[in-house]
Amino acid sequence: MTTIAPRVFSGVQPTGNLHLGNYLGAIRRFVPLQDQYDCLYCVVDLHAITVWQDPAELARNIREVTAAYLASGIDPRRSIVFNQSQVSAHAELAWIFNCVARLGWLNRMTQFKEKAGKDRENVSVGLYDYPVLMAADILAYRATHVPVGEDQKQHLELTRDIAQKFNVDFGPRIAELGLGDAFFPLAEPLIQGPAPRVMSLRDGSKKMSKSDPSDNSRITLTDDADAISSKIRKAKTDSEALPSEVAGLDGRPEAENLVTIFAALSGIERADVLKDFGGGNFSTFKSALADLAVAKMGPIGAEMKRLMADEAHIDGVLRDGAERANAIAEPVMRDVKAIVGFIGSR
Q1: Other CB atoms within 10 A of residue 228 CB
Q2: For 12-31, how does the pLDDT look when each residue is reduced to its tens digit (9 = 90+)?
Q3: Which residue among the candidates 207, 236, 305, 337 is catalytic per the annotation?
Q4: Angle between helical axes of 311-340 and 89-98 (0-180°, round to 10)
Q5: pLDDT tens digits for range 233-262
Q6: What is the C-alpha end-to-end distance of the chain, expressed in Å?
Q7: Is 90 exceeded by the pLDDT of residue 138?
C-alpha cells in the first residue's frame, strides 16, 4: 500500500442554532487534533441544502459555524477552515463516486431511513446521496482520519468501500500512471474516547436538537450568561436527590444528562461529580452547573458574536481556507480524472 501522509478531515453543517451538544460532541474535539495532524475543518454547506434552506439564513449560518470553529480554538493558520461549496472538487468527485458506489450500499444507510421517515418519495435525491458526497469530502484530500460520531460511522464505512472499489476497479491504470498500488486511503475513524451524549434540557430521553421548538431545551453557543444560567436552572429534573454513584442514574434521564454535562464541561468523570454532589438537592447542583457552564461557554459565545459582527474577516478566513484546500484537492482531481480516462486532465 502506498504511504499517504496522515491528514484529518471533518465538517459541521450550517443549519443554525449551534448548541452545547454540537460543541461537546464535535467542535471541542477538533481543537487538540491540530497538535497531531494536518487538519481540514469544513463548513459543509452542500450537505445543508439536501433540505431546503433560506438563502440569507444559510449565508448567516455558514458564518456562524466558522465563528464557532475560531472561537473554540481552531486556528485558521494551522488548520484549513473553509466552506465546501468554494471547492469544486467535492461536487466533481461525488459524481465520479456516484458511478463507483452501488445502489444496494446506499439502500442500507440507516440515517437516510430515519431522516426521510414515511415520506421517502418526496425527499431530495441529495438527501439519499448524502453519504457519497461525504466520501468525496474526505477523499478529495486523501484524508486518512475522520473524527466521527456514532451516527456517521456507517457513512465512513461506505467511504472505505468506495475507496476500495475505486482502487480495485482502476488498479492497473493507477499502477500504469505511477501512482502506486492504491490511490485512495481507507480512512480510519478517529476515536478520542466516547463523546458525551447531550440530551434536551426539557426531556432527557431526546437528544439536544436545533429543531426542538422550545429554546429552553438547548444551550446555544451564542447564549449569554443570563440565558445559560436561566436554562440550566429551569432544566427538568426529578424529585429525588442526586445519587452518590453512577449506577443510581439509571432510569433517571434528566439527572443523568445534567451530570454528564457537568462532567464534560469540567473534564472529570461522572463518578467524581457524584462524589461532590451526591445526596444533595438539585438546586445546589444546578447552581454549580450554571456557574460552570457560564465560565466555559460564555467566552466562546462572546467571541462568536464579536467575530460574526465582522463578516469581512469571516469571509476572508473562508476564502483563504478555500484557496489552501483547492491547492490540495486540484492535483488529486487531476489524477482521478486521468485514472478514470478523461483526457486533458494531466
Answers
A1: 24
A2: 999 888 999 999 988 999 99
A3: 207
A4: 40
A5: 999 999 899 999 999 999 999 999 999 999
A6: 23
A7: yes
| Phi-psi category of residue 186: left, alpha or beta, with phi > 0 → left and psi -120 to 50 → alpha | beta
Provide the 3-class DSSP secondary structure of residue 1.
Answer: coil
Q: What pLDDT, in 10s, does the model give residues 141-155?
A: 999 999 876 667 788
Q: What is the grid cell recorded at 91? A: 461536487
**287 residue type, one letter:** S
3-state secondary structure of 279: coil
Q: Active-site residue among 210, 236, 305, 337? A: 210
Which residue stretches of the chain are H helix?
Answer: 20-22, 28-30, 45-48, 55-72, 89-98, 103-107, 110-116, 125-139, 153-169, 171-176, 225-233, 253-266, 270-277, 282-308, 311-340
Q: Is 118 a catalytic residue?
A: no
Distance CA 319, CA 82 (A): 7
Under DSSP, is residue 43 helix (H, G, I), strand (E, B) or coil? Answer: strand
To the question of pTM greater than 0.85 for the whole model, the response is: yes
Taking alpha carbons only, the member of 84, 6, 71 closest to residue 41 is 84
Rounded Cα–Cα distance for residues 138 and 10 (Å):
8
Annotated catalytic, 113? no
Q: Are 78 and 314 in contact (CB under 8 A)?
A: no
Cα 327 from chain centroid? 23
Nearest-angstrom CA–CA distance, 135 and 334 = 18
Long-range residue pairs from 64-67, CB within 8 A, at least 24 positions apart, any chain: 64/14, 64/16, 64/18, 64/222, 64/304, 64/308, 65/12, 65/13, 65/14, 65/18, 66/307, 66/314, 66/317, 66/318, 67/303, 67/304, 67/307, 67/308, 67/314
Q: Which of 115, 165, 236, 337 is catalytic?
A: 115
Which cell numbers hold the place of 217?
A: 431545551
**Residue 275 designated active-site:** no
